[in-house]
Amino acid sequence: MENAMFCYQCEQTMGGKGCTKSGVCGKTPEIANLQDLLIYQLKGISCYAKKIMEQEKKIDKSIVSFVENGLFTTLTNVNFDAEVHVKLLQESQSIKERLRDEAPEGEYPDQCTYNLSETKEEMLKDSVKAGIMYDQSLDADIRSLRSTILYGLKGVSAYGHQARYLGYHSDQVDEFYFKGLEATTNDNLSLEDLIRMAMRTGEISVEVMRTLDEANTTTYKNPSPHKVNVNRVKGPFIIVSGHDLKDLEMLLEQTEGKGINIYTHGEMIPAHGYPSLKKYKHLVGNFGGAWQDQQKEFDNIPGCILMTTNCLMRPRETYKDRIFTTNVVGWDGIKFIPTKDDETKDFSEIIEKSLELGGFKEDEEKKEILVGFGHHATLSHAEKIVEEVKAGNIRHFFLIGGCDGARPGRNYYTDFAKMVPNDCIILTLACGKYRFNKLDFGTVSGLPRLLDVGQCNDAYSAVRIATALADAFDTDVNSLPLTIVLSWYEQKAVADLLALLSLGIKGMYLGPSLPAFLSPNVLQYLVDTFNIKPISTAEEDLKSSLNQIC
Ligand code: SF4
Ligand code: SF3
Q1: 16, 27, 306, 330: which has the highest count of C-beta atoms within 10 A?
Q2: Reaction catalysed by this chain (predicted)?
Q3: Which atom of ligand 1 has the smallest separation from the CA of 14?
């Protein structure tokens, strides 16, 4: 069965239905099947852990961390290294056995009783029963909700991993990994139970984003507006991609005074707003566009790249020797920078390589864009914003945020942003903003019309901004002159979407296409309950958002 697979967890899934021969993302059937088996194992661990927790006992944080990392490893565009998966599988088995000994007697599902095979070949054979579509008789809506919960949890795990690395965690989130995964194996749960569980996943997503916000803003202080050069600077360089601020910080420390320029890439751009990061003079700018442009943009580049989280694409031969991964990111044959026992990393190899490559020969003319409008910075203008809205000078807010991706339909987001009238403010977050963040939107009432709130996890920041404004207007978020236009690609966006739904936010536009894992009934439920709207054309959606409230 090594040549068959099934995965429909991201937006670019083949034919909008599922990748069955190989992943559009570059995931081979081997990796896909090992990932299925790893999730199967994590579910087994979780069923035992839940029973143990019911006896008022705590689960060791090293096990929480293992489950978190395991989930994150299977998120789209994170890890493509079979050996890493085999190691994680082996570790999962010993953890499962430990919990099996500790758990009370009782009936447990197959995910618990299964014992991992010795060789990779046997594991791949076993993985068939871990496949999403294995149980043909499973109700389509149950499968859909189980998948929604699982993908939401994958998104949560990415944020949880980042926060934990900075020394922050939430017990609520930690316990929910087990409860959520157990729910996806539990045949006694009805559709209503699973809908509740999906909403609970959303609440947990809010909690993990809150924890990460606390971790980031305590460690690096609250972001404040900062101009970022998006053009090249002469000299050797390292491009840091992904979401992990701590990796960036450690690299900045280790490169200080070495004549190496550091650029952010993709989701790392909000780093320029954090006082404890922007103080480094050699953090010179932001490089390139969103993740899907990397193969073209990294081609033959005279410097190095460090991937701290998603999104990693198949590295081309022309830069295979200069791209490095760390944390849970990996690609077979690509250099990996491990975390040492004291939680630090040794970046000397990437530093030496970047010096050897020599870097850019010349400076390009500076082009600057503004970042750093997290909740703290934006809300410092709250009074003014409220006044201007009341005076009719600011008409409407649009939160245009989420993931970017390769499909052509994503021009919608550029068109939408361009068409937003001049008396409206655009808030943005995550990598979808690369569709329009280099355009000049000017100002309205003395405020920039484009406010970059941050990374995808800063959806929490956007929520803080929206609730504070709602309070100031003595209303609720749904009654604000605010429209949310979400773009999704991978599972962090699923966690973000569930978070917004769990907060009761209605009328969001979702695109560029709808998740393949939502069954028609589940989708209908979301439409009926939350008035979720699939995007149509930028013109029409803009018109209806402005008409609806004004
Ligand atoms: Fe396909 Fe997306 Fe799964 Fe990759 S992650 S195999 S592209 S559905
Ligand atoms: Fe982008 Fe991968 Fe999702 Fe954090 S970097 S948003 S797609």
Answers
A1: 306
A2: A + NH4(+) + H2O = hydroxylamine + AH2 + H(+)
A3: 1
